[in-house]
Amino acid sequence: MEQMIQTRSNADKSDDSGSYSLEDLDLEGPSLPGEVIVKKSVENLIDLLAAEIVVQATLCVRKFGTFHLALSGGSTPLPLYERLMYDPNCRNLPWAHTHLWIVDERCVPFDDERSNFQMINETIVIHSGIPPEQVHPIAAMSQNAEVEYEAQLRELLAQREAGEDRLDFVLLGMGSDGHTASLFPSHEAINERVKIVRAIEADNVDPPQRITMTLPLINSAREIAILVTGESKAPMIERIASGHESMDELPIKGVIPTNGSLKWYLDAGACGYAQ
Ligand code: 6PG
């Protein structure tokens, strides 16, 4: 990873127009499990990821009649969600046949600004024309939130034939401590093998109570995308690439598809390139 941390000359820097530039082709990515896609700018990275979601949605609707998409919260995916709404190239996303799930939720009311669903609702749901019955927020304030969400997932996914009864596309983020979804370092929920949704309480996060998809559900997905941008995430990407720590220490290392694909979408900052 050392060779990645280098300062690039001004001549290498792309303009801000969002257009592809040749130097994007030269960016070397870290060695991570799965395919690693690196773009210099977040803008170009998001172009690719948005296009991939549209392609996967179209394929799944053609094949199964539905597309099951699970989205994460946090701040990183916000420009992607906005792009899905305003970019004419994304207009073909078949929202009418899409089921929208939430990877994890903070146990706060939906009108709390920390609610992941609030962000996804405001950026996507109200603009997309997706039928309301195909939107599946986590009722995180309910006593039985984990049981209810698991039952909802199992019921709808079971409408597909065996083997295809899984999420089609899971978008994950990564915290600078290596957490993903609401699976935090050293938390026993990382090792959950039976439940596909868990209620957890974590230390030092706000709010500490969360409802989260677990690794068995995430790893069974047809396609998993991990979107990581910004210099603050570079040290963690380097730790993952160096390969010595366990998934208990770095939960994102537990993301290993059982019968699907894993793609990392990284910008130059997350790879340690000087900006
Ligand atoms: C959440 C997430 C979480 C997130 C990471 C990265 O609810 O916070 O789903 O797993 O993806 O914490 O968050 P940022 O994108 O804000 O860095």
The count of helical stretches stands at: 6
Largest sheet: 7 strands, parallel
The N- and C-terminal alpha carbons lie at a distance of 17 Å
Beta-strand fraction estimate: 15-25%
Class per helix and strand makeup:
alpha/beta
Q: What is the radius of gyration computed over CA atoms, rounded to a whole number of angstroms?
A: 18 Å
Q: Report low-confidence residues grouped into runs of 5 or more.
A: 1-20
Return the average pLDDT rounded to an integer: 91
Topology record:
Layout: E1 35-39, H1 42-64, E2 67-71, H2 78-86, E3 98-102, E4 104-106, H3 116-128, E5 135-136, H4 145-157, E6 169-172, E7 197-201, E8 209-213, H5 215-219, E9 223-228, H6 234-242, E10 261-267
Parallel strand pairs: 1-10, 2-3, 2-6, 3-5, 6-9, 9-10
Antiparallel strand pairs: 4-8, 7-8
Bound molecules: 6-phosphogluconic acid (6PG).
Plain-language structure description:
There is one protein chain. Helix content is 26%, strand content 17%. The chain contains six helices and ten strands. The protein has helices at residues 42-64, 78-86, 116-128, 145-157, 215-219, 234-242, and strands at 35-39, 67-71, 98-102, 104-106, 135-136, 169-172, 197-201, 209-213, 223-228, 261-267. Helix 1 (42-64) crosses helix 2. It starts with 34 loop residues before the first strand and ends in an 8-residue tail after the last strand.
